[in-house]
Amino acid sequence: MIPVTLPAWRSRSEMFDDVISWDVRTFRKFLGSRLDHFEFAVLDVPHSDPAPWERGVPLGRYFPLERPSKIHGRIIFYRMPIVDAASKEYDPRMFIHGVVTEQIANALGVLPEDIDYLQ
């Protein structure tokens, strides 16, 4: 009902999904087959309280799956906590990229700077 030329054409959650999706697609191009066996999702908020080792509300989580599954794990990004934290940053888009990088590095068992395509 709303023309694509108007800002309201996409909801805020859809625009956030677009940002995450773009970054994940870029990582897929950069890392190749290393991300083939991972699923990515966005949820509004975590479904549970933070784990004892997490400080504050988590921005994302990696859930490994038992093998011999075709999927090694799921990486979940939490929209509301990320948007809230990013709003306090000088460059919100770079903050979101940092969260995506950190979660993918955690899933792959490497340091974020080893896989960051911007470095």
Average pLDDT metric: 88
The ordered string of helix (H) and strand (E) elements is HEEEHHH
Strand order of the largest sheet: 1-3-2
| Main beta sheet | 3 strands, mixed
Shape: globular
Query: How many individual helices?
Result: 4
Uncertain segments are none
Helix fraction bin = 40-55%
Nearest-angstrom radius of gyration? 15 Å
Number of beta strands: 3
Strand content: 5-15%
Structural class: alpha+beta
Distance between the termini: 42 Å
Topology (SSEs and partners):
Layout: H1 12-31, E1 38-43, E2 60-64, E3 73-78, H2 79-86, H3 92-108, H4 112-115
Parallel strand pairs: 1-3
Antiparallel strand pairs: 2-3
Helix pairs in contact: 1-3, 2-3
